[in-house]
Amino acid sequence: MTDHDIFALPSAAPDPEPASATAPFAPAILAVRWTTTLAAAIAVWAETASTPWSWAWVALLVANAAFRTWRPMPSSTDAGWRNLTLALFEVGLPLLAMATTGGWSSPFVFTLFSAIAVTGFARGFAFAMEAATVSALLLSGGYLAESATTERIISAVQWTLVLILVGLITGYARRMSGEADRQQTIALDRLSRLANANALLFSLHRVTQTLPASLDLDDVLDTTVDRIKTLFSVDFVAILLLDDSDPDAWHVAKKDGARVRPRFTGTELPAPVLSALSSHATLTVPDLAGAQQQGLGPKAASGVYSVLEARGAVIGMLVIENNEPNTYSARDVELVRGLVESVGLAIDNARWFSRLRTVGADEERTRIARDLHDRLGQSLAYLAFELDRLIEVVDSGEPINDRVERLRDDVRMVIREVRDTLYDLRTDVSDAQDLPSVLEAFSKRVEDRSNLAIELLCDTDERLPLLQEREMWRIAQEAITNVERHAHATKVRLVWRCNGDAAVLDITDDGKGFPLGKAGRLDSYGILGMRERATSIGATFEINSEEGRGTRVRCTLLHAAER
Asked: How far apart are CA 348 and CA 352, in angstroms?
């Protein structure tokens, strides 16, 4: 393995297949579809002038709802004729039902709203607005052609506005959901790359450049077995690892030369393996048959057995066997003793590397999900409730112009919140952008969207190594975000002191603080994540709070890492 191979990072994985844009809204779509269809059926039943023609439309709409429950509307912006035809049919069916049963006064009016919502989620903003506009024009034209009274004109305008608003909301919901998914994928991919580089450099600092140099467990096992086969006369070799979930179970992680069981309990291990395990040593058995012992390999006549240790504990066993007796000398035993130390470290590093990479990705995924839930999820739910109230007002005949304008402003506010969230997720410290400049830009955005006044006191002459400075930035971001969302504060004071070798991050707010006796609780508002970030760069983390007197977060790094 060359130096280039050691430091090379894995290439980016291909972009995953995009999930259906309607999937997150499937339960709501199903509920709305059936509710509007059943409402239409009830309205037809309640009408004294109901005709067989109306019941025929009810049957068609119920059949369509049942079919779409079984086969949901496909999600695609592709201009192909099949998907386009399905979308046009979805809107056209309730449109024809309304056109033939009274236009805007039809009992099927709400089925058109659900159709516009479904196609908006499935095909996006442009199609939803086009479908809503064309449907409204066609219905209003026929409705007013019968009788253009003032009452009918007002009714047509109101229904048209509501229909277009449905297309607007669903189209934007589809767009925002897709953008959030893309940004989450980018953030997770970027986090995985950073975790790979950080763990790789840390491991290389601790482990000598001997066998093996990889951080992938399969590579470690393959390289170890290949090296053993070149150093010793081998007919069978195996590496057994202790199961983390069961301290009395061993699984065969790698074998070569014969088939053996994939898993053993402690009492099922062969006698020479148990002897090496009990003595925590490397031992050889020149003649297994003469010693009335059986090796791990089915034809083994002699062997060398040694424990694999890391951090002072046994993590595995190395078994080297030959089908001929008296194969291994004292020199072979000494060679194995010198080999197992680096093998044990390499295997342990590879296993921890895999765990840390998973933990890091899960932590970042949780943070992103929390950000999207706290802002986007609640805002969309609010818009949905407002839309429901607007429909109730329309039914009552009250004016809706002011309510529509307020809802439009609310939609713009949601769009702004989504942009802020995505911008915060993308923002990071880099070689060209130091921590003070990132903090200044972030603080300005927080001040613009909240009532917080943020005072920054930052040293700008010296910098930390990039990885440490990035973790300090994420700690500061989490602390200020917690103040913004939970502390009910009006002022925040952030101090950043750095001399290139040591640094202090100090954030104080005048908010409500923690309840008495619970300051610094490990799971409070992301404090656990901040502690873990501080620990990962060798810094100390303190949090002090008093009810009614605010909270202070302080992260201190005494020795910066070598650049």
From this structure: 6
| Residue 29 host element (H or E) | helix 26-46
Cα–Cα distance, 250 to 131 (Å, whole number):
63
- Of 563, 560, 536, 562, the C-alpha closest to 475 is 536
Question: Tell me: the pLDDT tens digits for 364-423?
Answer: 566 566 555 555 666 666 667 777 777 777 777 777 777 777 777 777 766 666 666 666
Q: Give the pLDDT confidence of 221-244 residue by residue, as tens digits.
A: 888 898 888 888 999 999 999 876
Q: CA angle 171-392-45, nearest 5°?
A: 100
The single-letter DSSP state of residue 73 is P
Return the percentage of the chain with pLDDT > 90, whole number.
17
Domain residue spans of the chain? 23-185+365-413, 217-357, 429-557
Q: Find out whether 524 and 514 touch, Cβ atoms under 8 Å.
A: yes
3-state helix, strand, coil in the chain (%, to 5): 60, 15, 30
Same fold across 217-357 and 429-557 = no
Q: Residue 159 contacts by C-beta under 8 Å, 6 or more apart in sequence? A: 104, 109, 136, 139, 140, 394
Per DSSP, which regions of 323-449 are E strands?
A: none
Distance in angstroms (rounded) separating the CA atoms of residues 212 and 343: 7
**Phi, psi values for residue 181, rounded to 5°:** -60, -40
CA-wise closest residue to 319 among 333, 304, 300: 304
Element (H, E) at 545: strand 540-545
Say whether 253 sits in a helix, a strand or coil. Answer: strand
Alpha-carbon span 260 to 301, nearest angstrom: 16
To 10 degrees, the CA torsion angle through 41, 43, 45, 50?
-110
**Backbone region of residue 527 per phi and psi (left: phi > 0; alpha: psi in -120 to 50; beta: other values):** alpha
Indicate the pTM of the whole model.
Answer: 0.35
The CATH classification of domain 217-357, taken from the options 3.30.930.10, 1.10.357.10, 3.30.450.40, 3.30.470.20? 3.30.450.40
CA angle centred on 183, ends 178 and 185, rounded to 5°? 95
Amino acid identity, residue 133?
T
Q: 75 phi and psi, to 5 degrees?
A: -100, 115
Angle between helices 466-482 and 527-536 (to 10 degrees): 170
Residues 151-174 have pLDDT tens digits of 778 877 877 787 777 767 776 666
The end-to-end CA distance of the chain, in Å, is 25
In DSSP terms, 456 is beta-bridged to 494
355 or 488, which is more confident?
488
Q: Which pLDDT score is estimated for 6?
A: 28
DSSP per residue, 476-522: HHHHHHHIIIII--SEEEEEEEE-SS-EEEEEEE-S--PPTT-TT-T
Tokens coding 513: 């603080």
User: Superfamily for 429-557?
Assistant: Histidine kinase-like ATPase, C-terminal domain (3.30.565.10)
Residues 6+ apart with CB under 8 A from 263: 249, 250, 251, 252
